[in-house]
Specification:
7 strands, 9 helices, binds NADPH dihydro-nicotinamide-adenine-dinucleotide phosphate
């Protein structure tokens, strides 16, 4: 097994914030050539500048992952600048907080567009290059992609959909050497709860949880890197993910009650 991502060409979506931003810094410091995508062009340009000043190699492309042609432009940027794609990390994502009784259907459509279709769009254009390099596709799912998370119907559904898509892609490419990994972070300190959509589609603007007690994006980035190097199928992180994966097999109804209990205790929880 290689020990680092040195010289790998790694495309990362959602690289302007949180986990994606941390992956960009951590992987560039390991010697990878990182190609960064997100909608916030200024943040990406500043991050690329910072990485280059530190001696790293990076490029960026403004992309709304909902738009297939922009996903193509992101992959084209990687190939033009660095000649190939070794790893695609589908990380761009959006969350929500509302129970299904109350939520506008538009919110669920938006979640599917960004989290699921954003992944599909990027994979579509990266796949031929990843097949050439026998590279890796990584989907940043969630513990909510392992078991339904109450108050997050659209989020859990979009992450399950990602998994179904990625697992099928793995099997279709079984004889082509493609590595496909689903990574499932638990709560990680980032902007995701601030930008999460509420029932009417407006941004939550605040976090209902203690961000200081969560994993850091840098920890997630390092665990995902190890998963890529070991060519894992499923990358679980801390106790939340491991316990969810294990208990679901033997006591799913117990897990339902635990998820209900934990999430109903959040301040302003939409269910009690
Ligand atoms: P952040 O909100 O900090 O980052 C989200 C990133 O996604 C931003 O860079 C944002 O950039 C980008 N993004 C959002 N919408 C689009 C879009 N339409 N097109 C392109 N980029 C987009 O959250 P995290 O870092 O926490 O989230 C990263 C991933 O990790 C997500 O998939 C999330 O579901 C997952 N995750 C997060 C957990 C957590 O607790 N933080 C737990 C489990 C999984 P911009 O606005 O510039 O477009």
């Amino acid at each position: 097994m290689k020990k680092s991502l040195k010289d790998k060409v790694i495309v990362i979506t959602g690289a302007s914030s949180g986990i994606g931003e941390a992956m960009a810094r951590v992987y560039a410091a390991q010697g990878a050539c990182v190609v960064l995508g997100a909608r916030s062009a200024e943040k990406l340009a500043a991050l690329v500048d910072e990485i280059r000043k530190a001696g790293g190699q990076a490029a960026w492309c403004a992309v709304d992952v909902v738009k297939p042609e922009e996903c193509k432009a992101l992959i084209d940027t990687a190939v033009e600048k660095f000649g190939r794609v070794d790893v695609l990390i589908c990380n761009a994502g959006l969350s929500m907080r509302a129970i299904f009784d109350d939520v506008d259907l538009e919110v669920l459509h938006r979640l599917m567009d960004v989290n699921f279709w954003g992944t599909v769009n990027c994979c579509k254009y990266a796949l031929p290059y990843l097949q050439q390099t026998k590279g890796s596709v990584v989907g940043i799912s969630s513990v909510a992609g392992l078991h339904g998370l109450p108050g997050r119907t659209g989020y859990s559904a979009s992450k399950y959909a990602m998994t179904g898509f990625l697992e099928t892609l793995r099997i279709e490419n079984l004889k082509k050497g493609l590595h496909v990994m689903v990574a499932c972070p638990g709560f990680t300190a980032s902007n995701v709860r601030f930008s999460a959509l509420t029932a009417d589609g407006s941004q939550q603007g605040a976090t209902p949880r203690n961000e200081a007690k969560m994993m850091t994006p840098e920890q997630v980035a390092r665990i995902v890197a190890r998963g890529i190097l070991k060519r894992k199928r499923l990358c679980l992180m801390e106790i939340e993910g491991r316990a969810t994966h294990f208990v679901k097999k033997f006591a799913p109804a117990f897990l339902d009650r635990m998820f209900y209990l934990v999430m109903s205790r959040e301040p302003d929880s939409p269910f009690k």
